[in-house]
Write a structure and sequence with these properties.
- The protein is mainly β.
- It is about 5% helix and about 40% strand.
- It contains four helices and 23 strands.
Length: about 325
């Protein structure tokens, strides 16, 4: 099958509901990726052609992502998305009446992105320079489908405070990939290998199991509800839920200038709603820092889970590994 990009229309819209309308698809006969420019440029499906979706998506999600005035509103529909961080800045991103940083500002979480390019192997999406609160922000998301992987480049085009106030927390581009709840997630350590297992002074994850080669395994079934692990890492992987024995692997690379100022371990993060949540899922997250931050994520579907650490390019486990 030749690589192709498809603008989904009536056929898929009828199968998946209006939620799928306007989706762009990259499919090379081996892998398939579905992207929604109309909702923040989210990656809503990734997996083998004809196979299961490796990503979680809310089965009850609708296209109603705008309010009565036609402005985007925050809705957690799943998939992979770009957030602008840090979370401590979100209150300032909103209007003057905002009393909380949560939820994320809808204009980078759910607003439509312009389709700059869409061809057989590449989709380039770009936001306008968006002014909100005291900030002006723009984002760019580029998807490139290769033989056995999807490469996603996320760039913070601008993130400037329009007042003279001091910025205490570094700005960052932040990828959040939601996947179905699984019993374990593995990660590859980077730099000093720091990690934070506690939340509010109590452990929310059991101690990770070492797999060798800088890889660790997290027992997701024993994690608290809303548990979060922050650590120095550059790769995360989780088994698919379709019984195939295959794994989703996400590796992050970024320029050294975007990796050198982590005051706490937060290059990689794993979050889980827990098993008793109404709609359980896990988030695999990566962050790059700076006013012009950028990062590249490589997504793959791999076999042979027991050999997972050997199936990827080994990375030196040292503080000098800046990719």
């Amino acid at each position: 099958m030749r690589p192709e990009v498809i603008i989904l229309a009536a056929t898929l819209a009828m199968r998946c509901g209006a939620f799928a309308a306007g989706t762009l698809v990259l499919d090379n006969g081996t892998l398939r990726a579905e992207v929604m420019p109309s909702c923040g440029g989210r990656l809503m499906r990734f997996g083998r052609t004809g196979g299961a979706n490796a990503l979680w998506r809310d089965p009850d999600a609708t296209t109603n992502i705008v309010d009565a005035a036609g402005r985007p509103r925050w809705v957690n529909i799943g998939g992979e998305k770009t957030w602008v961080g840090a979370m401590s800045l979100w209150k300032g991103f909103k209007d003057k009446s905002a009393v909380s940083f949560w939820p994320p500002p809808a204009w980078f979480d759910s607003a439509p992105l312009e389709v700059v390019r869409a061809d057989a192997t590449n989709i380039l999406l770009r936001s306008a320079d968006h002014a909100s609160g005291d900030w002006t922000v723009s984002l760019e998301r580029e998807f490139t489908l290769c033989d056995d992987r999807l490469i996603l480049r996320e760039t913070l085009g601008s993130c400037q405070k329009m007042t003279s106030a001091v910025i205490d927390d570094p700005r960052r581009v932040w990828s959040v990939t939601q996947i179905p709840l699984v019993s374990k997630v593995v990660g590859r350590l980077w730099g000093e290998g720091r990690m934070v297992l506690d939340r509010k002074g109590k452990p929310c994850f059991p101690e990770p199991r070492s797999l060798g080669g800088g890889w660790i395994e997290l027992d997701m079934s024993a994690a608290w509800r809303d548990a979060r692990l922050d650590f120095d890492g550059d790769a995360l992987a989780a088994p698919l839920t379709d019984g195939s024995g295959e794994w989703l692997v996400i590796e992050q690379t970024a320029p050294a200038r975007c990796l050198g100022a982590f005051g706490a371990p937060s290059r990689a993060m794993v979050f889980t709603t827990g098993q008793d949540a109404p709609k359980p899922y896990i988030e695999l997250e990566f962050v790059a820092l700076g006013p012009d931050a950028e990062q590249t994520l490589t997504l793959r579907i791999v076999k042979d889970a027991p050999q997972l650490p050997n199936s990827l390019t080994p990375q030196p486990f040292s503080h000098d590994n800046q990719n």
